[in-house]
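Subject: Sanity check before I submit

Could someone independently write out the structure tokens for this chain? I want to compare against mine line by line before I put it in a report. The sequence has 246 residues.
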Amino acid sequence: MYVQQLYDSMKTVYHAANTRGHQDHGWLKANHSFSFANWHNPERVHFGALRVLNDDYIAPSMGFGTHPHDNMEIITIPLVGDLEHQDSMGHGAVIREGDIQVISAGTGIHHSERNARKDKQVELLQLWIFPNQKDVSPRYDQISIRDLKKKNEFYQILSPKAEDNGSWIHQNAWMHLGDFDQNTQTSYTLPENGNGVYVFVIEGSVGIGTQKLSKRDALGIWDTQTIDFSIEKNTRVLLIDVPLKF
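---
Independent answer below. Compare away.
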């Protein structure tokens, strides 16, 4: 694991987009930021409580058959297209671009996911976060994050509190999205001591200290309270703020 000092006591680990695991199943093209399925990297197992960050492309009408989960917080963010969901809790829904879906698997669920479109692939991010409570009652949530969107600043889409903006999970974790114009400066302040932030660039280009990040690059950051960003061109960024010890 490559760690560098940027400034003050901040520590980082850089994950270039082309160092992720990649699997091509024909109907599914999957990119794994952390060890998953047949791809294993002992230095890329998790970032604190963040266990999985998959960047998936699913062919029209194809998808994952019914499969189980337990004791995991599962967050799905469609980037392009629509994803059809069915689960053992009785939920059937289509998750669209501009939505976020959260499942607390708890004592156990089964679910399936399929591209709801017959004419184009769906592109999505799916994240798994270790919970701070085991064996909770399974829970499903799906909300639109369109109304939360703010231009040129980070907006919260997930937190530990049900009363906050966005959805919530059983963990002291926060997620923010940011959609920025070229040549924008911004910053992010961590709300919880002992947390770290995994910065994932969905589109565009951003500088953090001396580190430059491009599309699908990521930077894990810890031992700091504030992170400064220099946006170099029109950019979309996902921040995943998680406990490092859990």
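---
OP: Matches mine. For the report I'm noting this point. The chain has no helices and 21 strands.
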